[in-house]
Design goal:
- The chain is mainly alpha-helical.
- It has helices at residues 2-30, 39-62, 64-69, 78-85, 88-108, 111-127, 134-137, 141-171, 174-206, 216-247, 251-281.
- The longest helix has 33 residues, at 174-206.
């Protein structure tokens, strides 16, 4: 049991670091305005998140053998580690590490090459989730995998943009901050329906019937849905009230905007942790 708790903790933390690294890259690639007072800090945060994610992913991978044996000493079992090496977990780890390397390279290179390398790394990293888990074993994998990739890409962009938005609103000029928030809100208008449609498609294909919603997997899924509903309300508040107020140089609005963004960050991080627990211990079928 202790091994399982340690494993899911490492997995949840790796999700936070992975989505932060990928999300910052996507935020920087899709922005239209220069960020003279924020961009260098975002590069450092993105690189740090990628390095932390690599360490956490490696630690979680090594712990797979311990989960098989049921005790921490299983990490040193060569036979069990060999089984892990031949499993889908190895492919997943390889893709994640490749994606993280590309993200670090993209954040450290010149602007002409940065966008291509960074975005490619983010796509490779997010695609790694299609090699393992419930979607990889389903008969409809050909449909589930691209839908899952869309779903994860939207989540990564949303989660990874919150810290940049917080920093931009506190460091950049009111005009720049308001423009960045307005651009992000305009992108969210298209992303939220994509997130909703992808989520509904995944649930419809993975859940065997409606009674599955009364089992642990379904209950955690409903908790995630409730979390996203609250997130959408908070995002709407920033889009229609606090975001426009930033452009009017309203300092109080700036503080409230950052408070809402901080709440979104914590809530979305909680959703990612719930996902780690849900996909580690439960399945849609039982």
């Amino acid at each position: 049991m202790a091994v399982d708790v340690l494993s899911v903790t490492l997995r949840a933390l790796s999700f936070l670091a992975l989505f932060q690294a990928a999300g910052i890259v996507l935020f920087l690639a899709l922005r239209a305005q220069p960020l003279p007072h924020t961009e260098s800090a975002l590069h450092r945060i993105g690189i740090l998140a990628a390095l932390i994610a690599a360490i956490l992913c490696l630690a979680h991978y090594l712990l797979e053998a311990a989960r098989m044996s049921g005790e921490l000493g299983g990490v040193l079992d060569a036979a069990l580690q060999g089984m892990v090496l031949r499993s889908a977990a190895s492919i997943t780890l390889a893709w994640r590490l490749l994606g993280l390397v590309l993200i670090v390279a993209g954040l450290g290179l010149g602007s002409a090459t940065r966008r291509t390398a960074g975005v490619t790394g983010a796509v490779v990293l997010l695609a790694s989730f299609t090699f393992i888990g419930h979607t990889s074993k389903d008969a409809a994998r050909w449909l589930l995998s691209p839908v899952l990739l869309v779903h994860l890409s939207v989540v990564a962009f949303w989660y990874g943009s919150l810290l940049p938005l917080y920093l931009v609103s506190s460091r950049e000029s009111a005009q720049t901050a308001g423009s960045v928030v307005q651009q992000f809100s305009a992108q969210a208008v298209w992303l939220v329906p994509a997130l909703l449609l992808a989520g509904l498609t995944l649930a419809a294909l993975l859940l065997p019937d409606l009674s599955a919603l009364h089992r642990p997997y379904g209950e955690l899924l409903l908790a995630k849905v409730a979390g996203f509903c609250v997130l959408m309300l908070l995002a709407a508040l920033n889009r229609w009230r606090f975001g426009p107020a930033l452009q009017r140089r309203d300092r109080a609005a700036g503080r409230r905007f950052r408070q809402v963004v901080s709440t979104e960050f914590v809530l979305l991080a909680t959703v990612l942790c719930v996902t780690a627990v849900m996909t580690t211990f439960f399945s849609p079928e039982s």
